[in-house]
Amino acid sequence: MSQTKQVKQLDRVIIRFAGDSGDGMQLTGDRFTQESAVFGNDLVTLPNFPAEIRAPQGTLPGVSSFQVHFADHDILTAGDRPDVLVAMNPAALKANVGDLPKGATIIVDTHDFTKRNLVKAGYDANPLDTVEEPGSELAEFAVHPVDLTGMTVEAVKEFGLSRKDAARAKNMFALGLLSWMYGRPTEPTTTFLESKFKKNESIRDANITAFKAGWNFGETTETFVVRYEVKPARLPAGTYRNITGNLALAYGLIAAGVRSGLPVFLGSYPITPASDILHELSKHKAFGVTTLQAEDEIAGIGAAIGASFAGSLGVTTTSGPGIALKSEAIGLAVMTELPLLVIDVQRGGPSTGLPTKTEQADLLQAMYGRNGEAPVPIVAPQSPGDCFAAAVEAARIAITYRTPVMLLSDGYLANGSEPWQVPAVEDLPAIDPAFATSPNHVSKKAAKAAAEGGEQAEADEFWPYLRDEATLARPWAVPGTAGLEHRIGGLEKADGHGNISYDPANHDLMVRTRQAKVERIAESLPPLEVDDPSGPPGSGAKVLVIGWGSTYGPIGAACRRVRRAGYHVAQTHLRHLNPFPRTSATS
Fold it and tell me: Quick one: which of 146, 147, 172 has its CA closest to 159?
């Protein structure tokens, strides 16, 4: 018989699941996130895991964590200091306890607090034995030692699993307990487990049983006497789903293909944290998407450029080290003036650097990391959901202006998630490839013949470097179109007819023209918005905070705090880093 539990109302909660890399913390956090998304909370997540393939078990470098911040109102970040820490071993406790505020709740799996594991984590003695003592490391927290592993093994023993396999379900026990504590719906996780393990009934049933056992433990134990309620957030009407930045980028590329009528070709080499874009796009052949996992970074972008030459939307995805390898080929796309999307999901550098940690590390490389004069437009999304719109915008610029475009995401956006309002396809901007279909230049021979006959001369030649007056884009002719045969390549082209030219004056003209084409993009950009509740620019805040990319959430949250303290501060966030929008507007 369940006992009556107190229910406490909260407006937001930050929970961090932490354990060894093999403890399933990413899956646990993701499932709690999906439950919260179904419930209707606003949320932001922060997965954090080591770069090593398998760091030594039970050590600090091997700790993996997943943080989710969910609320009944609009939030912008995954939060700084968790209200709840679920620690599956001593190393997880040691690595994360310093981030907790006074009074935070700690749920500890006591099973792995052996002498050997305590030493590996850097403890001289078991910190759980001195919780009540003044000056103890854990004295300021509400600590709940629970034998999650032992109770899990006992709950699933009927399925005949080995102790090792049975213990692996402890993450589902922990998920069930936290789902009970915060009133999360259980059906989505049960359905997920049924689908994920449908080919192995014993594993499926053990995980579902462990999940339910965790829920029932919360309901019946005297250890937890309070449940917490975080009501759904009030969001604009629409259809929502939880989405990560990489998934949003993949969907945005598909949408760009649909709106432009172009097949999408991705030439890519797997690299953290961009690989999920390749994984996702490979599932969508029905939308005209072709993916190539190339043998290296250079081959990936080379194939993408070739696809663009052939009339597809060429895309390549990578991170900072891959951008370094692709720099010559990006210059080739600048010279050939072909549409190309270069998606850089940034991570810490230099070299291998911090593969699984986020950093806005590649801005200068994106702007200047090529030989010669090779200007490239740069677009930067500000949140996981915004990656969708940024991908569509980058494709619009690339196709309209015949240029490679760099899209700067990062690991925080790529792996983090938030509720995303699914747009209607017809509301997305139409993108016109405007392929060349006929000759565009009158030859001297044709002009002479027409003059002799008193007729209007008709174009009989195709010049691949004539310019559109509005965009300065050159014509895009699909190979095989009769009468539009032409050559492109990395050597400098003569203005207009596109033959190879070593003339200094022509080179100066072409360099300036390519730069002017990028600058012309600013005319199609929306005005830069300034968020200033205190009034319009000039009469409101005297301080303006400027950012770009994934700093939007932290900057926005900081501005909110400052405003609540009674100060006036404005915020503006750049999506287009090259070129900048030419005008500004009030908001």
Answer: 172
The C-alpha atoms of residue 428 and residue 449 are separated, in whole angstroms, by 48
* Cα dihedral 372, 373, 374, 380 sign: positive
Q: What value does the mean pLDDT take over residues 534-540?
A: 73
Residue 267 parent element (H or E)? strand 264-268
Kindly report the CA angle at 121 between 119 and 122, in degrees rounded to 5? 65
Say yes or no to pLDDT of 587 above 60: no
CA dist 256 and 249 (Å) reads 10
> CA 105, 90, 227 angle in degrees (round to 5)?
20
pLDDT category of residue 54 using cuts at 50, 70 and 90: confident
Over pLDDT 90: what percentage of the chain? 90
- Beta carbons within 10 angstroms of residue 322's beta carbon: 24
Q: What is the pLDDT of residue 452?
A: 87
- Which residues lie closer than 8 Å to 460 by C-beta, 6 or more apart? 439, 441, 442, 443, 445, 446
Amino acid 1: pLDDT: 45
Q: Which helix (H) or strand (E) holds 45?
A: strand 42-48
Using alpha carbons only, how large is the chain's radius of gyration in Å? 28
Q: Which residues is 500 bridged to in the sheet?
A: 493
Poorest-confidence range of 132-141, 336-345, 562-571? 132-141
Task: Please give the torsion angle defined by the CA atoms of residues 320, 325, 330 and 332, in that order, rounded to the nearest 10 degrees.
Answer: 180
